[in-house]
């Protein structure tokens, strides 16, 4: 039995050493797990913050796009109305130019003919 007792003590020592090594590996692994869990929590907080920023940016972008669309419509309507005004004012401008030309022609001969009449008849007082 003394031989088997020594073998048993040897096995016991090896078993205790193996268990100690396994517990050490387990503690090392538990440390890594805690680090990764902490990193995971940090990433989840960051992800929530980024998701909130993304949602806020999406809402703001939608408002800006809608406002730009409204401005585009207003600009298009204004340009179309301005084009119609220009189109409709051209005949009026042509008429005014014609009338201004006619008015200038009409006043020139009358004043020139009055001067000629005075010269032809001579002064009334003489």
What is the CA–CA distance across the termini? 177 Å
Into which percent range does the helicity of residues fall?
A: over 70%
Count helical runs. 1
Tell me the series of helices and strands, N- to C-terminal. H
User: Could you give a short account of the major beta sheet?
Assistant: none
How much of the sequence is in beta strands? under 5%
Class by alpha and beta content: mainly alpha
Task: Tell me briefly what this model is.
The chain is mainly alpha-helical. Helix content is about 95%, strand content about 0%.
Give the helix/strand layout.
Layout: H1 2-121
Give an overview in words.
This protein is mostly helical and 126 residues long. Helices cover 95% and strands 0% of the residues. The chain has 1 helix and no strands. The chain has one helix at 2-121. The protein is rod-shaped. It starts with a helix and ends in a 5-residue tail after the last helix.
């Amino acid at each position: 039995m003394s031989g088997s007792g020594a073998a048993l003590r040897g096995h016991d020592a090896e078993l205790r050493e193996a268990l100690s090594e396994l517990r050490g590996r387990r503690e090392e692994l538990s440390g890594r797990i805690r680090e990764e869990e902490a990193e995971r929590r940090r990433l989840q907080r960051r992800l929530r913050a980024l998701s909130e920023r993304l949602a806020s940016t999406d809402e703001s972008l939608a408002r800006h796009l809608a406002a730009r669309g409204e401005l585009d419509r207003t600009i298009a309507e204004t340009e179309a109305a301005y084009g119609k005004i220009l189109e409709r004012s051209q005949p009026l401008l042509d008429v005014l130019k014609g009338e201004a030309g006619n008015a200038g022609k009409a006043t020139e001969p009358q004043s020139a003919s009055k001067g000629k009449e005075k010269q032809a008849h001579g002064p009334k007082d003489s």
